[in-house]
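Let's study a protein:

___
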Amino acid sequence: MSEDTDAAAVAALLEDDTARRILLETRTQPMSAETLSDRCGVSPSTVYRRIEDLREHDLVESRTRLEEDGHHYEVFSATLERIVIDATDDGFDVEVTREESMADRFTRLVEEM
C-alpha cells in the first residue's frame, strides 16, 4: 500500500460487512453490482457506495463486460490478496498485498528489461 495509507480508514472499511462480502465474492470471479446486491442482501446503491470506498484504497477494480447482444455492463474484481497489520511503537503499519493485473505484469516486465 502507498506511503500515505491510513490504517484507521482501511480498518474502518473492513469493519463493514458489505465491504468484506464484496471482497470475498469478487475474489475468484468478477461480478456485477446487481449480482453483488443479491449475494450481499443489500441494495445496488449500497453496493456502489462500498465499491467506491474500496476503490479509494485500490482494493477493487472494474472492467466493462460486453455481451453478444451489444449490451455492456461493469463488473468488479477484488485486487486484495492479503492485509497485514503490525503494531509498532508509532502506531500501526498496514501492508496490503494486491493481485497484479496482466497489464501491470507486462509493464513491470518491460520496465525491468
Observations:
- Helices lie at 7-15, 17-25, 33-40, 44-56, 102-112.
- Strands lie at 31-32, 60-66, 72-78, 80-88, 91-98.
- The mean pLDDT is 85.
